[in-house]
From TrEMBL:
Keywords: Signal. Residues 118-185 form the Ig-like domain. Residues 1-23 form the signal peptide. This is Ig-like domain-containing protein. The keyword Signal applies. The keyword Chloroplast does not apply. PANTHER family: B-CELL RECEPTOR CD22-RELATED, VASCULAR CELL ADHESION MOLECULE 1.
């Protein structure tokens, strides 16, 4: 699965008919990646196309809603096409809730309307590592909730360092208590699975440095691991940490309140989103989690 999934379509010319044609009826793509949906369409001679759009929601007796008007997709859509016979939809920064059936609609100047149905079913998945086997001789499997499009190559990481690249999603290892493992797909190495370990503590940042434009949105991605017998009580990001004091949750710091969005969970994902970046947001960001008995911060 590359960073951009291309889904081309066949072109049929029906001189007196209406059609929308998609080559690929289903796509499985990684969360955080980019996907491209492409279609061609035909309409009756003498008509002129006045509007084209993609949609996922359509209620009985209600006109379908242009996906470009949905705030869930704000800043993540690109339309490329013409008003003759082709149209592309590019969705960036895919989220699991983007999973849906996508359909294309066009209208003409003579009140003609046509919807391509069925559309393209998009499934968005994250990566997970499944552990099976004996006490320490383990088989690790990089799993997804759907079969990734494009016959991907899998990359394995041990303690944050690349150790294997293979078309197989399986990896046999001697799993010591202190080691952690994660997987990724070639071409999207920035989209790691959460790491798994037996008795280890870790915070793994996808990137050590980020340069972003003022006014843009940035996702600071990371994953964390801890012994399975612990339970997460609190998880947060911070920038300042004075000696002898606990770091302060960034979400309660003046200037950051309402300005940041924690996308993580209390399991393994600790991604932080900062929209509408300001020059004052330049800083070193660190993640900390607290369990029922321990505290751990990822540094640097």
């Amino acid at each position: 699965c590359n960073s951009l999934v291309f889904c081309d379509c066949l072109v049929f010319l029906w001189l007196n008919g209406w059609s929308v044609t998609y080559t690929t009826q289903s796509i499985c793509a990684l969360k955080g990646s980019t996907v491209k949906l492409t279609c061609s369409y035909t309409y009756r001679i003498g008509h002129k196309v006045t509007s084209t759009f993609w949609f996922t929601k359509w209620g009985t007796g209600v006109e379908p809603e242009d996906l470009g008007q949905d705030p869930e997709y704000a800043g993540r859509l690109e339309y490329h096409g013409d008003k003759k016979n082709g149209h592309n939809l590019i969705i960036t920064d895919l989220r699991e809730r983007d999973s849906a059936e996508y359909k294309f609609r066009f209208k003409t100047d003579q009140n003609g309307k046509y919807i391509g149905s069925p559309g393209v079913t998009l499934s968005v998945t994250g990566l997970q590592v499944k552990v099976t086997g004996g006490h320490q001789d383990k088989t690790l499997t990089c799993i997804t909730t759907c079969t990734l499009t494009g016959n991907p190559t899998y990359i394995w990481y041990k303690n944050g360092h690349k150790v294997k690249e293979d078309t197989s999603s399986l990896y046999s290892v001697y799993f010591s208590d202190a080691d952690s493992y994660s997987c990724a797909v070639k071409g999207r190495e920035d989209l790691h699975s959460p790491a798994v370990c037996q008795k280890c503590w870790s915070v793994i940042y996808t990137r050590q440095s980020i340069c972003a434009l003022k006014g843009s949105t940035v996702n600071i991605s990371c994953s964390y691991t801890y012994p399975s017998y612990h339970e997460i009580k609190k998880a947060f990001w911070f920038t300042k940490w004075e000696s002898g004091k606990d770091p302060e949750d960034l979400s309660s710091v003046p200037g950051y309140e309402g300005h940041i969005e924690y996308l993580g969970d209390k399991k393994s994902d600790c991604t932080l989103r900062i929209p509408d970046l300001r020059l004052s947001d330049s800083a070193g960001y660190r993640f900390r989690f607290i369990t029922s008995g321990e505290r751990f911060a990822g540094s640097p």
